[in-house]
Amino acid sequence: MDIVEVKNISKSYGSILAVSKLSFSVKEGEIFGLLGPNGAGKTTTISILSTLIKPDEGDAFILSHSVVKEQGKVKKLIGVVPQDIALYPTLTVYENLSFFTDLYGVKNKKSAIEKVLDIVQLKERAKSRVDTLSTGMKRRLNIAVGLLPEPKVLILDEPTVGVDAQTRANILESIKELNKDSGITVIYTSHYMDEVEYLCNRIAIIDFGKLKALGTLQELKAIVSEKDVIELSLEEEVNNSTKEKILKIEGVKSVEVAQKSIKIVVNGTNVVLPELIKVISVTTKIRSISIKEPDLETVFLALTGRALRE
Ligand SMILES: Nc1ncnc2c1ncn2[C@@H]1O[C@H](COP(=O)(O)OP(=O)(O)OP(=O)(O)O)[C@@H](O)[C@H]1O
């Protein structure tokens, strides 16, 4: 069953079209990834889903309730974990949760707080002031706040931004466990491919507010199954005219230049490589060449012509 249906939503901020005719649906119980670079429109999309802002056109439905017309009903069905940590630093963990249980009108306050503390493994820190917690703990507490009203859909906006690798792994694990144990539907936004690869049952790739592709990891990889990524490390950065020449080589699908390295999505490495070396050697020396199997980044590169990074 589709628990979330997004139908043709658009949203502009002045002249910036943040979301453009976006449609997708999320199945009950799945972890659904919204993947896109900074500014792709992820936060705008989930702000619409969580009734914080209204779309200029289109509508979205949570368990068939319109986010435009039935805000009250929608709010009871969703939990939102914002990108920024939204906690009171001078209050303790418990006091923060207590504040939000009152705000959300959560019944059985004590057991609700204990339950979420258990899920995010912060029971031992219940009496600690928030400003004494590590960033990872704050992020987990942020998730706990989102879980307090026992939502049917938990929406997480880049919950691992600015945390170290271990904390990140920990947060991802908590989300996976939560989904497995409670069957809660999760919408997870990120610009990290490895996170959505690890977590999500299905992934929507968005760029400049538009849906570029949607499917399981296997389905998305199938889009580029015939392709390879050639990565070159160079002595010097190449200029735009060299980039244009590379794009004209037969079999080259997209080129991404980042300082002294180039990533090129190609059809038929054997045919492209000699010509590629010829074109680049005119400008600079090649330090190394590697050829990668397609992954989610290849999909993104092939669809948008840009690498998926901050
Ligand atoms: N309140 C606003 N006023 C003006 N422009 C905005 C506002 N909010 C977002 N935008 C613009 O809309 C576009 C989409 O932004 P959005 O925050 O939805 O993207 P995002 O994918 O969530 O990016 P990030 O990963 O950086 O959070 C961007 O160009 C952004 O600058």
UniProtKB/TrEMBL annotation:
Chloroplast recorded as keyword: no
SUPFAM superfamilies this protein is in? Answer: P-loop containing nucleoside triphosphate hydrolases
- Please list the GO terms describing molecular function: ATP binding; ATP hydrolysis activity
Looking at the record, the residues that make up the ABC transporter domain are 4-233
Keyword Nucleotide-binding among record annotations: yes
Keywords on record: ATP-binding, Nucleotide-binding, Transport
Superkingdom of the organism of origin: Bacteria
Matching InterPro entries = AAA+_ATPase, ABC_transporter-like_ATP-bd, DrrA1/2-like_C, P-loop_NTPase
Where does this protein have coiled-coil stretches?
none
Family annotation (Gene3D superfamilies): P-loop containing nucleotide triphosphate hydrolases (3.40.50.300)
Q: What SMART domains has UniProt attached to this entry? A: AAA
PANTHER family registered for this protein in UniProt: LINEARMYCIN RESISTANCE ATP-BINDING PROTEIN LNRL
Question: What is the name of this protein?
Answer: ABC transporter ATP-binding protein
Lineage, highest ranks first: Bacteria, Pseudomonadati, Caldisericota/Cryosericota group, Caldisericota, Caldisericia
